[in-house]
Amino acid sequence: MGITSIIVSFKNRLSLITANLCSSLYYLCYLRHFVPNLTIGAPVIESLRKHTKAYLDCHLMVTNPLDYVEPLGKAGASGFTFHVEVSRDNWGDLVQRIKSKGMRPGVSLKPGTPIEEVYPLVEGENPVEMVLVMTVEPGFGGQKFMPETMDKVRTLRKKYPSLDIEVDGGLGPSTIDMAASAGANCIVAGSSVFGAPDSAQVISLLRKSVEEVQKNN
After folding, report:
1. Could you tell me which residues are beta bridge partners of residue 56?
2. Element (H, E) at 197
3. Is 3 helix (H, G, I), strand (E, B) or coil?
4. Helix, strand, or coil (residue 120)
5. Predicted confidence pLDDT, tens digits, the chain (217 residues)
6. Rounded to the nearest 10 degrees, how much is the dihedral formed by the CA atoms of 96, 36, 152, 65?
């Protein structure tokens, strides 16, 4: 999996980004229950898949992720990331179903959730393949990056050297080096990309920061 440095938005620039900038495409799927706001779901994934072969990574902030495995798999999603906070009792079955639908399983945790809670999911017989560390409280864009969450990233990178570690929330030119040096290799950026005069320049900067750390390590 390459560096995931873009969050898909349908506010003006999707065609520009999918045509010119993406080697992998991050799609943040805010769905019901876990956070109150509903954005877009399987129908949009299905529509996107008709026009791109990019990696469509779905992050589900829901209390019932099992309900979305089949529709998202059928729609053409590449990755399915669920929250550990709502899957403590059934994550094994959930990971199995995600893989059976041809998607790559990932697990996410909120800033206040202890990092130890994801260890069983990474080390299990049927493990997740990515851990997403939320660097803001989930639910709304434009929040301030929480640097204290980098301790979790550093812990994960030390414990699992080859694990894909994703960060989401407040990532941009002023925070990317902190995340990359901590060990994050998959970067989600929304406001910093879509609010910039030159989105391509910001994406290039984010990518370069991660690649430089990987090269030096």
Report:
1. 25
2. none
3. coil
4. helix
5. 333 333 333 333 333 333 333 334 444 454 455 554 446 688 888 999 999 888 998 898 888 899 899 999 999 999 999 999 999 889 999 999 999 999 999 999 999 999 999 999 999 999 999 999 999 988 766 679 999 999 999 999 999 999 999 999 999 999 999 999 999 999 998 889 989 999 989 999 999 999 999 888 8
6. 0
The structure tokens 């199995």 sit at 96
Quote the tokens at residue 178. Answer: 């902190």
Torsion 80-11-194-143 (CA) sign: negative
Residue whose structure tokens are 């080390």: 123
- Cβ atoms 147, 171 nearer than 8 A: no
CA dist 81 and 58 (Å) reads 6
Give the Cα separation of 150 and 132 in Å (integer): 12
Tokens of 72: 């998202």
Closest to 68 measured CA to CA, from 56, 58, 57: 58
For 129, residues 6+ apart whose C-beta sits below 8 A from its C-beta are: 1, 104, 105, 106, 164
Beta bridge partners of 7: 26
Q: Which amino acid is at 70?
A: E
Q: CA gyration radius for the chain? A: 16
